[in-house]
Amino acid sequence: MKFAFVAKHRTIWPVAWLCDALGVSRSGFHAWLNRSPSTRSRSDEELGGKVKASFAASDRTYGARRVWRDLLADGADCGLHRIERLMRLQGLRARPRRRRLPKDSGDRQLETVPANLLDRQFAAERPNQKWIADFTYLWTAEGWLYVAAVIDLFSRRVVGWSMSAAMTAQLVTDALLMAVWRRGKPDALLHHSDQGSQGGFKRSSQHQLFSLITAIRQAPPPAFSSLVSFSDGH
């Protein structure tokens, strides 16, 4: 393994430095470098190719045990520990199983739901007249990532957005705040969102919108890099 490390990095650092750092002799390294591969090494190289092919065919979902069973079914003669070693050397790790979709446990009190002021009228005559908002979630290597966005129906452009590891009212409020500041803090507009479970914002958005605009106008600008548009409603 030490000689293999020296061979891999000898184009970056001098061989003498690498050998001294690893406590091996230069003559031993050159003897190893010029030595023909052993039968075991050739066998590992051939089997390693089959391991990689099986792993890729599974869409990177097979672990060592399933790859091993796959190779045994193809007639390969190998042990589980050998497959584990070859996968480790090639950096082959199974992708984590996809988690179930986040649970929507929010309650929906119909008596507090605002009227649908947009009423599927998705055409806008000018910027900052009608905004629509929603959020979605994406699976990442670190878990679910929630993304909220605000779109101006006139230009169909995303004018505000935010991301968070938690599904909260603050997520959509931050997207709206960015939109207001990016579009020059418009006086009033129709802001439409669906009936989600984040009651702190969605079920009362049209009632809080003007007070939110007033609060934003009085607050110092946040650390956004550019401007957007905004509107009041459902």
Task: Output the keywords.
Nucleotidyltransferase, domain 5, 4 strands, 234 residues, elongated, 8 helices, alpha+beta, disordered C terminus
Walk me through this protein's architecture:
Mean pLDDT is 77; it is low at 199-208 and 221-234. The chain folds into two domains: 2-89, no CATH class; 110-218, Ribonuclease H-like superfamily/Ribonuclease H (Nucleotidyltransferase, domain 5, 2-Layer Sandwich). The protein has eight helices and four strands. Strand 1 and strand 2 (143-152) form a beta hairpin. The chain is α+β, with helices and mostly antiparallel strands and 234 residues long. Strands 3-2-1-4 form a four-stranded mixed beta sheet. Helix 1 (2-9) packs antiparallel against helix 2 (15-22).
